[in-house]
# Entry
Amino acid sequence: MINLKSNVPDGNVADKWTNHKFNMKLVNPANKRKFDIIVVGTGLAGAGAAATLGELGYKVKAFTYHDSSRRAHSIAAQGGINAAKDYQNDGDSIYRLFYDTVKGGDFRSREANTYRLAEVSNNIIDQCVAQGVPFAREYGGTLANRSFGGAQVSRTFYARGETGQQLLLGAYSSLNRQIKLGNVEMFHRREMLDVVIVDDKAKGITVRNLLTGEIENYAAQAVVLATGGYSNVFFLSTSAMNSNATAAWRAHKKGATFANPCYTQIHPTCLPVHGEGQSKLVLMSESLRNDGRIWVPDIVGEKRAVKDIPENERDYYLERRYPAFGNLAPRDISSRSAKYACDEGKGVNGGRSVYLDFEDAINRLGQDTIKERYGNLFDMYQNITGENPYNVPMQIYPAPHYTMGGLWVDYNLMSNIPGLFVTGEANFSDHGANRLGASALMQGLADGYFVTPYAIGNYFGSEKPEKVDVNGPEFKEAKSSVDESTNKLLSINGKQTVDEIHRKLGELLIDKVGMSRDEKGLTKVIKDISELRDEFWTDVKVTGKPNEFNQNLERAGRVADFLELGELMAVDALDRDESCGAHFREEHQTEEGEAIRNDEDFAYVSAWEFEKAGKWKLHKEDLEFESVKLATRSYK
Amino acid sequence: MSDKKINLTLNIWRQNSATEKGNFEKFEVSVSPHDSILEVLDELNNNLEREDKIPVTFESDCREGICGTCGFVISGRPHGPLTKTATCQLHMRNFSDGEVLYLEPFKATAFPILKDLAVDREGFDKIQQAGGYISFNTGSAPDANAIPISKEIANLSLDAAECIGCGACVAACKNSSAMLFVSAKVSQFALLPQGQAERYDRVDAMVTVMDEEGFGSCTNTYACEAECPKGISVSNIARMNRDFMKSTISS
# Structure
């Protein structure tokens, strides 16, 4: 029986978290050391939680598949982190940050979770500064801010174009301190391949030691999955090469429901695809839209060089269609607009890219100011494309970047499996159908530092989960099932490489489950993915042995899971017969191409229960809006 | 930009484990000038897999030059011929048709070879665990604007904090010294008011573990700075040395 009780506390939205913290069960300091906690993933959500739980006195085991916990993909976030500090005195507040985030997510997030996110945002900035994170500052020594999409206030804190790096290294430093103090035991180069459930509670994990190939079991009284999102299902995305859905997916197959898988964010400002050999796409921070203007030539088939296209023959389409927000329209809207322009044939040289132009900003502010704000991004652009963006406009195109969907969790970030907590990008709860810029770092650290530690204490205090034997039958069974699937992968000995099949999956998804979707395409792609999955299991080629450092085998296991998840994304997109946020159904749009939401029939979270590959059962959590009034999203 | 493919000869170091003997294996490849060198290896590996041969092991993750996972020696230089560029950001347009390249792992006693181009840099984590942090618990922080920090100091601290922990500085140094890496973290905190309380204990603890992990001493050749993909300055080493002297005198 699946229990999807959201456990949102009673009371006014602004009081819920405070009241809930007071009502939570506590574990006395002397007893905390009797509890073991496993944290999988060491990005912002994982490292933040592991460090804080260690500080509280719990015994923590932290796992990462990287060679060092400092490599987690949070490190690549560029632009910044939101907080409702209102240091700029421009009318910001916790309520405004909350409202912007709910609206940005097109009213498909869980209101109480989003409010809590906004509420703890200010603590995050305090925490990071105390850790020694060198945020950008004004000459007077106070913290600097900039603007991001979907907001009309300046609330984004940043460190050049490397905010994620600095925040992650801050969390990494806190984690290191707890490792030294002996409160956290760190396991590098371990990939989680199963979650172990004993008497209906999550009690451990099974991992593969990536250097030796050994399958290892670890037991604990709670398991936290902070394992990131699944954008790499598209093959070409801005995610790191190793980012994958395996930990979350294996938990899903053990009974954790997967929520809103079709909510995937295609980020508007990325470098365009350059050729067949391309391994990933590169993001150019949204912060560039503070000063860069997006345009395409007015006429289809424009052949002139960019300098020869006069001002009145350029279409600044975001400024034209969304005058109030202009180039800072939310990501889903900006991406779709770029797609439409290119579909019309107005892309640069008729291809799939649009201009992001800094000429006006350089004329107004000078090259030095632009360099100070975005220097490393401009360098990166030049490095990759060979073109100097100070002289010619950047060319950009949307790319898969973030996944709002993820494992279903309640208000306490616990999945429907007791004792299995899911945090950061890996869960579904805070962003609804579209995430605003600079909110991912905020959520990762909110969950890591300020929510998970309370929630786990409450679970221990109220449920009092027992310790289990790591050699028990459930652990043995998990290990042998992992062994079996490893041997299967290595024995197929087909003709196609793992990358080839992954690339095919990506092409199917970006075409039919990308920036716009329709019933016909979705119905077809569900069948196509299912066939591709059969192709994988009969024709893939995986080299090497199980008991060695074998990157080919690592990738094969991840792609096997993507082939199941990809189908569920399409199934979910087909079920959600409305347009909302990043999920745009062709059938539901205004004459101007704006999304038409259907609150009557679809104001729910889709939580899918796994029955077998290709077969899921839908459960619904109705979304209740007590504080925010449902409205049509407008950025005009 | 020309899309014409270029032909290269890659001599790649193959070694199955730290204890086994390694050797160069030669591959002829034809590549797009837009590809990064890691994408060239991706393609090579796909071809090897098709032929049922063992692909080349190399590590990478973000491919945007920020995570520090990738890195090997390209024809004698860590991260290759360009300055301030990580391996993943090195594109083939920087090479000419017919060039012969040698790809080897970072070589240092403190970085044992795992397989082919992958090395073990856990020593870096151990140094950070020794003292690379400001000790305070979640929840106890004052308001972020309570202590003003001048723009100049914040920028200097960030300059140091940009280190990606790739290990190129160690690989570039004839003594396999980790001074640039350690001094970057020491400087980030030494420059900030928040880092003052533990300033001298921190440098002492980190330098002690640096020595224990088998990293060599610094003889001021500055090869580290020249090869650093983030351009971390050797002035951080001077700052660390001053702090270390003070910590030794006071103890």
About this structure: Residues 246 and 558 of chain A are 6 Å apart (CA to CA).
